[in-house]
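[PROTEIN RECORD]
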Amino acid sequence: MTETDNLLGTALTGNVAPIHTDAHYSSTTEWGRPLVCSGVTLNIVAGMTVRSTSGLTTANLGLDDVRFENPVFVGDTLYAETEILARRPSQSRPRNGLVTCRTSGLNQDGKRVAVFTRTFLVPTDPDSARAAAHY
């Protein structure tokens, strides 16, 4: 996690709380340094899983049970682990299926920093979806 990751994320979301952006203020908190914005953490961890779980997603349908369990600081290295919880054909879109997974974000010490459940819509025939994406 870089300082640029944190500052760009806070600027894009408008969350410029001093705990994320002001080194002097943050030095007076229990953490002694800026915390990476939780929205930045969530987006980076979720983004890390796209290639292996949802690269052909048609739509994200839900993000549930989001929890932030440990702080993230500039300089931390994050990892993501994902478990597929369920999958089923879509009732309203016959060429798609719904996948629900739980993702955990871990720091370099193996501490879980975030966990969430995500449901997304994917094509049931990935080869057709890939071909359509490259025309």
The mean pLDDT is 90. The two ends are 36 Å apart (CA to CA).
